[in-house]
Design a protein that fits this description.
Blueprint (H helix, E strand, L loop, with lengths): L5 H11 L4 E5 L2 E4 H17 L7 E5 L4 H13 L2 E4 L6 H11 L3 E4 L4 H7 L7 E3 L26 E6 L9 E5 H15 L6 E4 L6 H8 L7 E4 L8 H8 L3 E4 L3 H6 L14 E4 L4 H11 L2 E6 L9 E2 L7 E5 L3 E6 L13 E7 L13 H7 E2 L2 E10 L5 E6 L3 E4 L2 E4 H9 L4 E10 L5 E9 L7 H9 L10 E4 L23 E2 L5
Parallel strand pairs: 1-10, 3-4, 3-5, 5-6, 9-10, 11-12, 12-13, 24-25
Antiparallel strand pairs: 1-2, 7-8, 13-14, 14-15, 15-20, 16-17, 17-19, 18-19, 19-20, 21-22, 23-24, 25-26
Helix pairs in contact: 1-2, 1-3, 2-3, 4-5, 6-7
Length: about 500
């Protein structure tokens, strides 16, 4: 894989076709010239504010033309981009700012109060960008750069993990890793010249960042939206003429549960690429919407995409990218072979730099992840006789119940098959006798009804006795990460609403 460099590629792409469309944001067309001029304007502003190559800048902005230009300004100037969810408040927000010793916090007006309340950044370190539009080109010529352009090995970003099971860790992401992430999307999604990628993912998540960079390396354009909306999805996709959509965190199921109609195939979408498509939803989605599912798997720590399924094998996350190798390891360190039980997914590479070099100022977490035999993902997988990989959830997302290991992936999969259930989340709670009891949180589909007793009886037909929830709680909604994954650690202390009778 030839690594070209983000900064140089951005300059070359804008110079080669300045009037070509990089993206459409709503109805606004953004040309390469306009994006390059806006990025230069911000870069000069950041330099005047004292930001230098290697400094860390926390960015708290929703998707907008301005935040798009901010990202490219940081990447071209060598300032380390620290994306943060604008919804962060309190200690979670303070953790990000303090952890990286932020030189500046670049934000929109709506988050200023949250930043002040978290008491982690002084007022003079805030850079508030009030206008969501692209800024105009700089009035004068660009000043001479005191430092050379960033190279692929330079640190591009510190991206904090989702924090689904505990405090977030900052992943050190190089320019090379972001480039590989973008190119991996092109491989997985079968990107072709002239394609349009519908993009709802937030820029501050790796799922969005990699798509922002894809047009640098493939002659495609983006259709950017501020957020995902299931009810308006197909209408919006049809209007944009998009050829590709991205699925994460149950989005396939959400779209399937929308009312069927003539809009289901009235679009140009060829491929839905992403991760987390439930096996039982795979073929129904393809048949209903006329779209090919391209499933992938990966983590920010390994340039986002580690494997992808180009063969359409239902339920599989496919095979490794050409620069990765994947092995499965048991708890005792032995290698788990084809057809054997799940093991931890361990990734190695033939391309130095494709795997991160550690979490930011977190040596203990780094040592647990990066070991002599490779990057230990903390995810469980299995492999079939044809070499296809399958994902079985997090090693930390299982528990011991009645002497058996119970996978949240299996319990939640069963619950989500119930016709009234839209989504679910399993957490473990201390048992009076033994290790853990299962507490299942459930969100029902709009307009659907069932009782806890009825749902528990249905689950008894789908799950082994040791997998059956002792506690059930219906919720109106789930706390979610930017990638729409449920934040289970925020559910653990909620009281149960229903308890299975007869359990001691």
């Amino acid at each position: 894989m030839r690594i070209e460099g983000l900064a140089g590629r951005f300059t070359a792409r804008a110079a080669a076709a300045p009037e070509a469309i990089y993206a459409r944001f709503g109805w606004e067309e953004i040309t390469w010239r306009a994006l390059a001029d806006a990025a230069e304007s911000f870069a000069q502003g950041f330099a005047r504010a004292g930001l230098r190559r290697g400094d860390r800048a926390v960015v708290m902005m929703h998707n907008s033309p301005a935040s798009l230009a901010v990202v490219f300004a940081l990447l071209k100037s060598g300032v380390v981009w620290v994306p943060a969810n604008p919804a962060l408040v309190g200690e979670a927000l303070a953790h990000v700012i303090r952890k990286v010793s932020a030189g500046r916090v670049i934000c929109e007006p709506g988050v200023v109060d949250s930043l002040r309340r978290c008491d982690a950044v002084s007022e003079d370190r805030l850079m508030v960008i009030a206008d969501p539009a692209l800024p105009p080109a700089p009035a004068g010529p660009a000043p001479a750069r005191l430092a050379p352009a960033p190279v692929p090995q330079d640190l591009a970003a510190i991206m904090f993990t989702s924090g689904t099971t505990g405090p977030a860790k900052g992943v050190r992401v190089t320019h090379m890793m972001l480039e590989l992430a973008a190119k991996s999307v092109g491989i997985c999604a079968d990107a072709r010249p002239g394609d349009t990628f519908y993009m709802w993912e937030p820029f501050y998540h790796i799922g969005g960042a990699q798509v922002l960079l894809l047009p640098l390396f493939t002659d495609i354009s983006l259709s950017i939206r501020s957020r995902f909306s299931a009810s308006r999805f197909w209408q919006d996709v049809r209007q944009t003429g998009a050829t590709h959509i991205h699925h994460l965190g149950g989005i396939i199921q959400l779209l399937l549960k929308q009312q069927p109609g003539p809009q289901d195939r009235d679009h140009k979408v060829r491929v839905a690429w992403g991760g987390g498509c439930a096996p039982e939803a795979w073929r129904p989605f393809e048949q209903r919407f006329g779209v090919e599912i391209r499933e992938c798997y990966g983590m920010t720590e390994a340039s986002s995409l580690t494997t992808c399924n180009l063969e359409g094998v239902v339920g599989s996350i496919g095979r490794p990218m050409p620069w990765f190798d994947v092995r499965l390891k048991g708890a005792d360190g032995h290698e788990v072979g084809a057809g054997e039980g799940p093991g931890e997914i361990v990734v190695t590479t033939t391309l130095p730099g494709a795997i991160f070099d550690g979490y930011y100022e977190a040596p203990e977490a780094t040592a647990r992840a990066l070991r002599p035999d490779g990057f230990h993902t903390g995810d469980l997988g299995s492999i079939d006789e044809n070499g296809m990989l399958y994902f079985h959830g997090r090693t930390g997302d299982s528990l011991r119940c009645r002497g058996e290991n119970v996978s949240a992936w299996e319990v939640e999969g069963a619950a989500n098959r119930h016709p009234a259930v839209e989504d679910s989340a399993m957490v473990g709670v201390p048992a009076k006798i033994g290790e853990n009891d299962i507490h299942l949180f459930v969100r029902l589909r709009p307009g659907s009804e069932t009782t806890a007793t009825e749902l528990a009886a249905w689950l008894d037909t789908e799950l082994a006795p040791f997998q059956r929830p002792r506690f059930l709680t219906f919720v109106a909604d789930f706390p979610r990460t930017a990638s729409q994954r449920i934040q289970k650690h925020l559910l653990k202390d909620l009281p149960p609403r229903w308890e299975r009778p007869g359990r001691g």
